[in-house]
Structure of Ferritin-like domain-containing protein:
Amino acid sequence: MRVDFTDLAPEPIAFLGQAAAIQLEFFEGLSRAVTTAPDLGAKEGLSAAAGVALRKHHALIAELRREGVEPVTMMQPFAAATDRFREITSGDDWYELLLGIHVTSGILDDFFARLAEGLPSDLGSRVRKVLDEAGAGGVLVRELSSAIADVPGLADRLALWGRSLVGDTLLVAKSALRTGGDDQAVEPVFTELIAEHTRRMDALGLTA
Amino acid sequence: MRVDFTDLAPEPIAFLGQAAAIQLEFFEGLSRAVTTAPDLGAKEGLSAAAGVALRKHHALIAELRREGVEPVTMMQPFAAATDRFREITSGDDWYELLLGIHVTSGILDDFFARLAEGLPSDLGSRVRKVLDEAGAGGVLVRELSSAIADVPGLADRLALWGRSLVGDTLLVAKSALRTGGDDQAVEPVFTELIAEHTRRMDALGLTA
């Protein structure tokens, strides 16, 4: 099964362009979370997480340069979809923004790490090392858990919001695949991505 | 003169707290510039500059920890003033935001680098090394120059905007001094800061 799935991995340059565009999007989301944070303590943790997303983005950009292509050109095909994705996942307030980043980066980081197994081995191991760096998860869980404990009704609203994000996020994942994701080999991977998502929601006490 | 001026340097912890708060503010401004950039090329350069500001912020935070204090507590006294400063310097559009960051970070980076000469020597040399890293200047000049060449009337509007920022920025600088800046030793330094500011505006073809 795994071999079938990694056969669906895109060409290295398309992979790197899309992965770099997505990390830039996570950086932008985390930056907005820093700017709109209610206190300096939250800013501290979130700015460190924004720094990690930026580092991942620039490491992927460096891999594109190493492949001899212009990074901006290679991210361009994903710009419109990324903008649309941001609009859908930004949410109505700071809490929804935080959960939006947590849910979408959780699913897409898992997905791109798996997909990286289909890259040429040297590149694949470098990319996996880049994507493996622990990012925003810790601080997002910390801030969200404390808000859910403090704000009446927030848990229900966030559970609904988290559920609404999964479909669009999986569409982004599918768009990265050679076949556009219309392949039986994809289903077991998506089932695992959703199981991981459910675990992340459970950890926040939210029904997935 | 220089000796007199550095005598006005605040206690190390107050210096580090304010300098860290200001770098966080530059990071937030640059992040907003990334998020609202008109194209991916601009995003690339600005996101790298945002990364530099964030690195400076975190290096100053690390120095606060080394002094045995809680960084968030030490930045807190500067939070309200920094928020107000942001409101004043953000501008009405992307170009004003870019020039706002260029003018205010130009003046304040110069100022804090000079002030760092009044810190205990080990700390002072580490802090100067942190602040010396080339930051946003290059990309801001590149983006602003090309916009000024392309957009009719922009040069006049930006010249006016740049002038309006100097007073508030110097107030932030003065607030860092032991005496609140009411000292003859300060004047020659401020004259130099304004001369550097004029050079930066000249380089953009803007009347200071």
Q: What stands out?
A: The longest helix of chain A spans residues 40-66. DSSP finds ten helices and no strands in chain A. The interface with chain B takes residues 24, 27-28, 31-32, 34-35, 40-41, 43-44, 47-48, 50-51, 54-55, 57-58, 61, 71-72, 75-76, 79 of chain A (CB under 8 Å). The radius of gyration of chain A is 17 Å.
